[in-house]
Amino acid sequence: MSVTNLNIAVVGATGAVGAEMLRVLEERNFPFSGLRVFASSRSAGKTVTCKEKPYTLETLEGADFSGLDIALFSAGSETTKAYRKAFNDAGCIIIDNSSAYRMAGDVPLVIPEINGEDLKGHSGMIAVPNCSAIVLLMALYPIYKLTPVKRVVVSTYQAVSGAGAQALRELTEQTRDVLDGKVVTPTILPHRIAFNLFSHNTTINDEGYNGEEWKVIQESKKILHDDSIAIGVTCVRVPVERAHTESINIEFMGERPSLEAVRSALGAFPGVKVVDDRAANHFPMPIDASGKDDVLVGRIRNDISNPNAIDIFASGDQLRKGAALDAVQIAEYLVEHDLLTKK
After folding, report:
1. Annotated catalytic, 282?
2. Mean pLDDT of 42-52
3. Is residue 343 situated within a structural domain?
4. Residues 50, 122, 235, 244: which is the catalytic one?
5. CB atoms within 10 A of CB 61
6. Is the confidence at residue 343, as pLDDT, over 50?
């Protein structure tokens, strides 16, 4: 297949991640000759722009998907499940941002910088990992390659935009109301988010972990191909607009690597930027990570309570590397490695 004749689709093109996908496709000049954009019936007939060209929004229902090579999905698990067969039967590879098939044995779950090789076994469905798992693993993996890791303990500080545009508006409105002395009544998020934080708003399982925490644990093991690594996670929603931040404690099987080796490994890893200025007390912040492709990593220090552990701090834009960018990078990998034909 000629790359110049590549036909792609963005499903969920009017959502936060879908709109970011269009921006990333444009910024990275992803090669395509045809682009189709899909959204709900409310948006049908309207247009979106990519590479300075308007595209008319379509609905999935009744659409003909023949001729499409790659579809970037960000329309929720139920949509992915409902349309997987139709797209795959038409010869189109799906790169899906939902959790629908992330843990399916026949579906690669991919961060290209880490396990792009897994794409060689795809059968037409590829999953983008959970955004918090991506931020964690981009910071962890360069260190993981240095010395075998025994255990990782993570606390997340997750931006409101991860819950969608309505939640972001609620943060803005609540903040204004609190400052004006008005009573705040949450409608989108379960608790007041302005000047507050709370456990991630997903269902608690029998082990006491919420859904987000469980995704990070299970998905990280799948991506690393390492069921032996112990992972403990606490996911928290904080009143930040964009970019997730994480405090990460890494315990090694044996002697920990030097801080110099850690900084060097992080600095050399694609998609990671070291921000670790102790003198200026300048470390990763969501305001610096927002809108950026790199995951910022800093607060690199020895854990004085454990001779075999270190602590780091990371921040990454959950709409960029945590979702849209990762999806486009997967598509790029498929093109560059001639993997557009499913196995």
Report:
1. no
2. 94
3. no
4. 244
5. 11
6. no
